[in-house]
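Re: your question about Signal peptide, CUB and EGF-like domain-containing protein 2

S., sorry for the slow reply, the queue was backed up all week. Below is exactly what I fed in.
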Amino acid sequence: MENSICTANGCHQNCAFVGRGEVKCSCWEGYQLNSTDRRSCMRTCRIGNGGCQHHCLDTDQGVVCTCQHKYLLGHDGRICSASCSVNNGGCHKRCTNTDVGVTCSCPGGYVLNEDGKTCVDIDECSVNQGGCQHSCINNIGSYECICPKGYKLNAIDEKTCVDVDECTANNTCEHLCSNLPGSYRCDCRNGYRLFGMTHCGDYNECSVVNGGCQHICINTPGSFYCSTHHDITRTNSNSTDSSQLTGHGKLFYQGIHCSQRDDAQSHAKEIVSKISLNTNITVIAKGFQIRVQNEPNDEVMFDCQEQSLSSRVHCSKEKTNKSRTVGIEQAASMSVDTFYTNDRGTMPLKTKQECIPGEFWNITTHFCDLCPKDTYQNTRGQTFCVQCPVGSSTDNHGSADINDCKRRICSSYIHDLQGFIESPNFPGEYPNNMECTWIMKPPRGRRLLFIVARVDLAEDKCQDFLVMRKNKSPYSVVTYEACKTSERPIAFTAQSRKLWIQFRSDSRNSSGGFHIPFVTYNGKVFSFPCHSSNYMELVF
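Result:
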């Protein structure tokens, strides 16, 4: 009877019959009776801390769990988890506190991993090149669009490339500049030659075939003129009324007046010395006839007709067994496909067509010789070398291109507010065995900011190098140093107010060098990062 009454009353744990059909519910030790329904039993903090992970509080409604400082109570009301204030909530990147605990998320360029905490980089370049017009480079958490040389990123969308008008910059070309898509072209005014891509040097017209002058050629900046000597009439640079004889890079003329026998004899010696196959020359002058003889069967005869030297040359060769009449210009090349005799015996003659660029045909030795230093030859089979433009020189013998001519000047413009330094002959290749030193000391309170778009140095075990430091002592504070090519644009501030800069090249390889602009800024007002790539507008 009592058990049936307790069961019907609904006590959760203990039930006691108190008479008159009434029962009293009670709870086991460690539990307390619910004050609301007086039947159910609730856990108290005395047993298992009430099921709480951190703090437990007994109330009329049961235990209440709380968490330590910087921890959050879980959705079950018992378990505590670290908030974002503790080790970023266990999140790799971003952490957000919510009612049910922390939530991890990732910034742009990342995606949340399956563990719900770590972030994985997104390779934006893997899909449609990141939208870049030219090329895309993926970075950790980001990416960037790159443009080819001669172009820069459009500042509006930072994806498309626009042409850089190099001609708008000062001193891109020394004379004339023409902008081209992705490039530019430099030209020089008449009388000057282009070398080193942008430089213009006076071309010494007198260095090749005597400038076309009959006797004396005088070079002037951008031009030249012919001068008189004895009774030779002065001609201008456009005169073409005389036939020519080429040899050793000089020009000799047929039209030498014979009004004075000694004068004619002197000029005959000069001409024949350039075309003769032997060095023992005898010159006999009689009347208006000049005979030049070096062997019994090998003579050259000049007949002076009407007070001028004719174009007839009589030449009989010991080995050809025949006589022939040729012009003076032909006589200069009569060594082709024949023989000559010297102290080594009879030798086959080489042809000047065998001379490659960088060489010239020496009509005295009948061999191809290297062009001397400070000259070049870019065409096969020539009998002369061309002098480098005025103010330039070559590193070695045998140069085959005018761009081998280089300016050996350490260029710079250093001002209180801005300026630049650049390698000699920039943007052409710098010369060998060069040493340039610059010292910068901005006004008090100002600091140096450098913008390096590109440094192109020959990679030969750091024998060519560029260094920036506080002073010339190798132990002073270094701001920047490079001994190889770097194409990634950077900007940086000097680590000291005063800066000592040195560039040095060795005797071997060469490369494109550098052009490094700089500005000074108020060090008390502005601060810049040690290095950055956000200065491209200044570079261009």
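Residues 230-261, 274-349, 530-540 have pLDDT under 50 and may be disordered. The CA atoms of residues 94 and 422 lie 46 Å apart.

Happy to talk it through on Thursday.
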